[in-house]
Amino acid sequence: QVLLVESGGGLVQAGGSLRLSCAVSGRTFSNFVLGWFRQTPGKEREFVAGISWRGDSTHYTDSLKGRFTISRDNAKNTVYLQMNSLKPEDTAAYYCARARSIIVVTSPTDYDYWGQGTQVTVSS
Question: What is the pLDDT of residue 110?
Answer without folding.
Answer: 95
